[in-house]
Design a protein that fits this description.
Length: 511
C-alpha cells in the first residue's frame, strides 16, 4: 500500500513517497517499506499485478509529470527498466511498451517522440532492444491510448483530433488494420472485455461520443462488427446543428485546429453569440463529446432575433492533440504560445464573420482558468465576456499550493530568479499590474471558485477579483460557493448551479 500518513512519507507535492507491505492484522508502523522515492519527486507508487503467470509488483518513481522510472519487483528483487526518464514504460503480461516524450535512440534504433514500441520484457532486460514500432506519429496523427485483448493490441489515435482505432495482431508479426468507426468528428475509446477469459478474450468495449451524438456503448470482437449495447438518451435538441473543423494561424505561423458547433444555416455577419472553451496544458486533449449541460444551457439558446448560440472547442498547444511535441511547444518559457493560439482562434472567428468582440465569450477552468486569466490581462480587446473557474492566477506562489510543486515541469519554478522572469509574463495577477488597460477595454469577467478547493485553493481567485475591483474594473463579478472542491460540484444539483451560473453570466454579457 502507498503511504502518505505523515510528513516523512509525503513528497513536497503532497503525494505518497513510499510503499509498504502490510500484513493482515499488522500495524502500519511495523509494515516493511519496499519502495520509496526522493521527497522532491512528485510521488512514488506501486501496484501488484495479479495476472496469472505474471505476478509481480510494478513500481513508479514519478520524478515530475513527464519523467519517471519504472521497476519490477520479483521475489524481493527490484529490477529497473533502464530507459531515459521521459520514456513512458507500460507493462502487460510478457510485453513492455515504450512511449517516448522526445526522440529516443536505443542501440541504433530511433523511437520518435510520440511513437509506440513493443517487445517482450525479458528480451529488453537481456538485450536492450526496444523491439517493433507499432505506431509512428505524423503531423496529423498522435497516440491517445491503447488496450490489450488476448491476442491483439488496440491503439486509439487522434487524426486531426478525431478518433481512429488501429488493431495490431500480436501473433502475426504485429500486422496492423483499422477498426471501423462510423461518423466524423467523434471520440472513441476501446478496452478489452477480459483479456484472460477464453470466451471473451478477443472481445472489446467501445465507447463512442460526439458533440451531437449521445454516448453509445458497443461490444465487439476483433475481426467482427461491433454491436450497440446501450445508448444515452438525447438530452437536448441537436436538430439543425452542424459540426465543422477549422484552423487558425497562430502568431508563429502554426495552424491550430478548433471545432465549431453551430446552426446549419449560420449567418456570417459577425452577430452570433459564441462561447470558446479551452485548456491547453498537461498534454490533455480536448476532444468531441456529448454534453447535455452544454446543449441545454448554451446550444439550445436563441437570441431575441432567433440566432442560435455557437460553441467552439479549441485545441491549442500545451494539450496532447498532436502528441508530446504539441504539448512541449508551450512548456515553461514557451507558455505564451498556448495563449497566442487561443487568441488566434478568437481573431479567426471574427475574421470569418462568425462573431465579433461584443458577442464573443470564453470559458476555462483550473489550468483553463489560467488561460482565461491571460486572456483578461493579455487580450482583453478580443472578448466581450469571460468565465474564469477554479483558476491558477498568482504564479509567484503556485508552488506553495498543496500539489503545486508537481506542476513545475509544466510552468517553471518561480523560486529560481531566471525562471521567474518568464513565469511572471503569464502570471495574470502580475500582468494586471504590468499591462494596465483602461476599464472599458476589459471584458465582463466572472471569477469563481469554491471554498473547499483543495487543489488550487480559493485564495487565487479571491486575490484576482479583489485586484481587478481595486483597479476600478467594475464589470468584474466574483462567485464562491462553499462546497464543491476543485471540480466545483459535489452532486448533480451543485453541478447544475455551477454550470448555470457560468452560462447565464456569459449569455447575458454578450447579448
Amino acid at each position: 500500500m502507498a503511504s502518505a500518513t505523515n510528513e516523512q512519507d509525503t513528497t513536497r507535492s503532497t503525494y505518497a513517497r513510499c510503499t509498504r507491505r502490510l500484513k493482515r492484522g499488522q500495524q502500519l508502523a511495523a509494515a516493511e517499506t519496499i519502495f520509496e522515492v526522493d521527497v522532491e519527486h512528485v510521488g512514488g507508487w506501486a501496484h501488484f499485478d495479479s495476472t496469472p503467470g505474471f505476478e509481480r509488483i510494478v513500481t513508479t518513481d514519478a520524478i515530475d509529470f513527464y519523467n519517471s522510472v519504472t521497476g519490477v519487483i520479483w521475489d524481493d528483487t527490484h529490477q529497473i527498466v533502464k530507459v531515459p526518464t521521459d520514456v513512458r514504460v507500460l507493462l502487460h503480461r510478457q510485453w513492455v511498451l515504450f512511449a517516448p516524450q522526445t526522440d529516443w535512440n536505443q542501440q541504433g534504433t530511433v523511437v520518435p517522440a510520440g511513437a509506440l514500441a513493443i517487445t517482450e520484457l525479458s528480451s529488453f532486460l537481456d538485450s536492450g532492444d526496444p523491439g517493433t514500432l507499432v505506431f509512428t506519429p505524423d503531423e496529423h496523427t498522435s497516440l491517445e491510448s491503447f488496450s490489450f485483448t488476448a491476442g491483439h493490441l488496440l491503439i486509439t489515435l487522434l487524426r486531426d483530433v478525431a478518433s481512429e482505432v488501429q488493431v495490431v495482431d500480436l501473433d502475426s508479426g504485429f500486422a496492423s488494420s483499422t477498426l471501423p468507426v462510423q461518423g466524423d468528428f467523434l471520440s472513441v475509446s476501446v478496452s478489452a472485455v477480459d483479456d484472460e477469459d477464453e470466451q471473451a478474450g478477443e472481445d472489446y468495449w467501445m465507447t463512442v461520443t460526439g458533440f451531437t451524438q449521445p454516448t453509445t456503448l458497443l461490444r465487439g470482437r476483433v475481426g467482427e462488427q461491433a454491436e450497440a449495447i446501450k445508448r444515452s438518451p438525447e438530452r437536448f435538441d441537436s436538430a439543425g446543428l452542424s459540426v465543422t473543423q477549422h484552423f487558425a494561424v497562430s502568431a508563429d505561423g502554426t495552424r491550430v485546429p478548433y471545432f465549431q458547433v453551430a446552426d446549419e444555416q449560420l449567418v456570417l455577419d459577425g452577430k452570433n453569440p459564441v462561447l470558446m472553451d479551452g485548456y491547453g496544458g498537461f498534454q490533455v486533449s480536448l476532444t468531441p463529446g456529448y454534453s447535455p449541460s452544454l446543449g441545454t444551457a448554451w446550444l439550445n439558446r436563441r437570441t431575441a432575433q432567433g440566432r442560435r448560440a455557437v460553441y467552439v472547442l479549441t485545441n491549442i498547444r500545451g494539450g496532447g492533440e498532436y502528441g508530446p511535441k504539441w504539448h512541449r511547444a508551450a512548456l515553461q518559457q514557451n507558455r505564451h504560445r498556448a495563449y497566442e493560439d487561443f487568441a488566434a482562434i478568437a481573431e479567426d472567428l471574427v475574421a470569418r464573420k462568425v462573431t465579433s468582440r461584443s458577442h464573443l465569450a470564453a470559458t476555462g477552468r483550473s489550468n483553463g482558468g489560467l488561460l482565461m486569466g491571460n486572456m483578461i490581462t493579455g487580450y482583453p480587446q478580443l472578448f466581450g465576456a469571460i468565465s474564469c473557474g477554479v483558476p491558477l492566477l498568482d504564479m509567484k506562489r503556485y508552488t506553495r499550493l498543496s500539489a503545486g510543486h508537481s506542476w513545475i515541469a509544466e510552468y517553471g519554478d518561480p523560486e529560481i530568479p531566471e525562471q521567474w522572469e518568464y513565469v511572471r509574463t503569464f502570471s495574470p495577477l502580475h500582468r494586471l499590474d504590468d499591462q494596465p488597460h483602461p476599464e472599458q477595454d476589459y471584458p465582463k469577467s466572472l471569477i469563481w471558485t469554491t471554498t473547499t478547493d483543495d487543489r488550487v485553493g480559493p485564495v487565487q481567485a479571491r486575490k484576482m477579483a479583489a485586484r481587478m475591483l481595486e483597479k476600478g474594473i467594475s464589470s468584474t463579478r466574483y462567485h464562491e460557493p462553499e462546497d464543491g472542491g476543485h471540480a466545483g460540484s459535489t452532486d448533480n444539483a451543485s453541478t447544475a448551479r455551477m454550470l448555470a451560473t457560468s452560462y447565464e453570466f456569459l449569455w447575458r454579457a454578450i447579448q
